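Exercise: predict the structure of this protein bound to uridine-diphosphate-N-acetylglucosamine.
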Amino acid sequence: MKIIKVVGARPNFPKMAPLIEEAKKHPLVESLLVHTGQHYDEAMSQSFFDDFRLPKPDIHLGVGSDTHAVQTANVMIAFEKICLEHRPDLVIVVGDVNSTVACALVAAKMQIKVAHVEAGLRSYDRTMPEEINRLITDQLSDYLFTHSMEANDNLRREGLDANKIHFVGNIMIDTLLKHLATARQSNILQRLQLEEKKFSLLTLHRPSNVDNLDALRGILLAVRDLAERIKIVFPMHPRTSQKIDKFGLGDFIKHRNIVNTEPLGYFEFLCLMANAKLVLTDSGGIQEETTILGIPCLTLRNNTERPITVEMGTNQVIGNQPEKIIQSANQIFDLSKYEPKRPALWDGRTAERIYKILLKK
Ligand code: UD1
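Solution:
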C-alpha cells in the first residue's frame, strides 16, 4: 500500500505526527510526506518538524500565501502532478485548512481513496472558510475518522455512508499526551517571568476577529482591562500582527501586564496552556487541548465546531464583545473549584486505531 500524507498549515503538524510515527510499525506500507507550503515561516512550520522530530517532507509544493482561490488552486495544480507521478492508493488529509480540501479534491477526481482525519466537525457557519473545507473534504472521503460521536451524527445527517465513518478519538491528543511531560520542563515560564496559574494566555487569528478593525479593537480593549488584574501572554499569529500594525492598534497591547511574543514552539505553548489560569482563543485545536489539560477556555467566537469541549465543562463560547469577555474572564478568576470531564477515546491511541482500520480494509 502506498500512502501520501499531506500537511500544509500549523494545525496540521500535531495531527499528522502520530500517523507518521505509527507508520513505522508497518514496513509494508510505503509512505510519502507532502508539505504544501501553505505555512512557511520557521515558527509556523519548521519548528514543529524539529519538536516532533518529523522526517523532512519527501515533497514540498511551496505554494505560500495568497487569496483562497489562488492558494487552493496552486495546491491542486502541484498536487495533481505528485499523484500522477506516484500513483498512491490512499491520500491522508487532516483538519480543515485550504491544503486539506485541495488535496482531497485532486485525489478524489483521480479515483484515489481519501482518508480524512478529524472528519465531521461542523460549526454550521459558512462564513468560516474552514467550514466549507470540512463539508467538501468529508463528501469526498472514503474514510471518515471522527473524534466524537457528535461528528458521527453530523456526517450521518448529511447522508454519508455509515460504513465510511469510524469513531477513533482525537489524533491531536496523541501528540499532546506524548509530549506533555517534556513540555512541562520548558523554561518558558521563567523566560517570560510568569508564575503558575497567575497568567492568562491569548491567541487570535480568525479573520472575523482580526481582519475587522472594530472587532479587533474591542477584543484588545477587553484584554487591556483584564491585564489590570492578571498578566496576559499573547503569542501573535503573523496575520494578527500584520493587522495590528495596519490598523494602528499597537498601543493597545503596550501594557506592563501584556506579554507580546512571536508565535511559540509546540512545547513552549503547551507548557503555557498547562500552567495558565485561563486561555482566551479563537482557535479550534486549543479548545480541545485545554479540555484535556482541564484548563478553562473562553472561545471568542459565536459558535464552535467542537461542542464536546463545552459539554466537558472547560470551554465557553462567548463571542467577541468586550463586556462579555471581561465578565466571563472575571467569573473564571473568581472560581475556586473546577472539575472538568474528559471525552471518550481522547487517550493517545488514535493513530493506532486509524492504522488498524486502514490495514484491515
Ligand atoms: C490557516 C487556516 C486556519 C488555521 C490557521 C492556523 C485556512 C483557510 N485557514 O489560517 O484554519 O486555523 O491556518 O494558523 O486554511 N502568514 C505568514 N507566514 C506563514 C503563514 C501565513 O506570514 O507561514 C501570513 C500571510 O500574510 C498570510 C496570512 O498569514 O496571508 C494568512 O495565512 P493563511 O495560510 O492564508 O491562513 P491562516 O490565517 O494562517
